[in-house]
Model the fold of this input.
Amino acid sequence: MGWMGFLLLVLGISGVVGWHLGRFADACTEMTGMMAGMTMGMLNGFVLGYAAAAATSNMFWGNVIGIGLGVTLGGYYGRGGRLMGVMDGAMGGLMGGSMGAMLAVMVAAPEWAQLATGALLGLVYLAGMIALVVLTEQRAPQYAGLHRLAPLFARSGLEPEEAEAEFDAGDEPADGLVNYYELFDIPVRASTDRIVAAYTACVAGADAETKALAQTALGTLTNPAARADYDRELALAAGLDECCPPPRRSSPAQAPPPAARPVVTPATRWVAPAVRPQARPAAGPRRAVPPAPAPAFNWRIAVVVAPILIAAAFVVLTGNPFAAPPADSGPNLSALQAQAVPATVGPDGVQTLDLVVNGTTMSYKPSVIQVKQGVPVRFNLSVEGRDPGCGRFVGLRGLGEHGIATPGEVTTLEFTPQQTGKFEINCSMNMMRPGYLLVTQ
Done:
């Protein structure tokens, strides 16, 4: 029940955070979406696969649940990167789910170590989700009113948009490109409200040329799409985007004659709007363009995620349907008692028995073992014949105990049975002929 509650909590957080980040989808590039999908798919798949395998003590169900949810959530977070983002997210969920399930059932560890590992994975998961939210919000300054975590991580004394500017607004770009941020004396990540306030202060008492330039700057910086293009051009002009190829220039035959090019003199600090190809002709006063509305909630994603959340809630409320079968299932108890081999109590008061895993027949010897309730038990595990592969994992269904049989070595599985009944012995993927442990009073 505890592990299934952990799984439901992770699903709930992932759904809410994914819905919140969907409101900044227009600020996400294809590469950003691909990285978010891959990272979150692997992280969610790993945590959920581990929790499912720990809850069921079964690697098969850990893989099914971890991979299924990891692929779904990876595609959910990678949707900002279009098809490539969804594909990368699904790939990350596939890898993370399988690795998480393998860690939970294939590594022999006491219960406290398993719980500690789950707590550590939970902390890593929370740190990853917080980092993703902060970075995504910082890339969408035009939606400052929707930010939840980015303001909490801004540096003291600076507004969030000033915390990490992509380039210095004071850099003087080449090719006569006007730096609108320096014109308004604002940081590169300034919000829309601050841009409008800076525009008002700039045009107060300014000449007609400066007013026309300020209007062009206002129209560009308050339009998210135009602002993104302008920022990219400004970075290229300043030589701060070395990852991208230089802009394609026209051939000399198509280039305008030198006399047609405007000359920028030291007396004019700012270039007239007509000089810049992107500048719009001033046609009287124009109103500030409000930022684009946040994307609407994607109901198609909700159709995929909602059944997962409902199924997880059903599991938590009704119990674990993937748990080991009850003790009264399987072969008849009286028939098993007739062939049971009792474990002998040694001088140290421990019930000891040699349990052999046969990799050739994929069976256990002895196949039925009888022990007493409340008395410590020690099984000496060994392997004969071929390597049993998954059969190395010796699990006691219903008791939550397991050990690892290693070829060429003798390992021990020690526990104290506290309940009576019949319990199946098998590997995590049910690849062995089942054995049985009878616990009597």
Q: What stands out?
A: The radius of gyration is 33 Å.
